[in-house]
Design brief:
- The structure holds two protein chains of two kinds.
- By secondary structure, chain A is mostly beta strands.
- Chain A contains no helices and eleven strands.
- In chain A, strands 2, 4, 5, 6, 9, 10 and 11 form a seven-stranded mixed β-sheet that branches.
- The N and C termini of chain A lie far apart (39 Å).
- In chain B, a hairpin with a 2-residue loop joins strand 5 and strand 6.
- The chains are: A mainly beta, B mainly beta.
- Chains A and B meet through strand 5 and strand 10 of A and strand 7 and strand 8 of B.
Amino acid sequence: QLQLQESGPGLVRPSETLSLTCIVSGGSIYTSAHQWGWIRQPPGKGLEWLGSINYSGDSYYKPSLKSVVSISIDTANNHFSLRLSSVTAADTAVYYCARRSNLAARPWIQWGPGTLVTVSA
Amino acid sequence: QSALTQPRSVSGSPGQSVTISCTGTSSDVGAYDYVSWYQQNPGKAPQLMIFDVTKRPSGVSDRFSGSKSGNTASLTISGLQAEDEADYYCCSYAGTFVYVFGTGTKVTVL
């Protein structure tokens, strides 16, 4: 059974780049069956979809974040990654990686437990 | 895309029904029958409760139902139980592989 687990630093300094990895276990990330995504939640606030990627590296982003967000996939090591540049305190959030079917407009059916990233000097 | 609009909170007594609205635009909720609903308990990841406006994943109670009219989708919880107390988020497909979430609603069981 597929499992997702976020990994990365819990503290990032303002203006630097936030980097997280989602480790996929129990199955291959290199499959046309799934899309892989990142969703975040600031403390006490709502969910925000950041972007997603498929097995061949086609990526899609929230339009307002396109200039600062990048998602990549590493099929050899079975993980995908998020990079968010020029972070501010507003980027402090729990970051979730998630999976959905690669069919059109499918919901996010599986989520990792989430990891808290704090942006602070 | 702006976040979909949900009421901040709704409440009901055990056994009652509550309905949560999710208002978007003609570019997201109104454009596609691809609205999903997620339940989130404190400190936990969201869990899918409804997809494609009205469909329930296997294992989700039939007390949860969804609907949509125009730019507004709704989630109804019937026969409210203490275990339903949680935060609920709607999510809509917005075209070109883009998704938008709602602002979230806290359901309180009185």
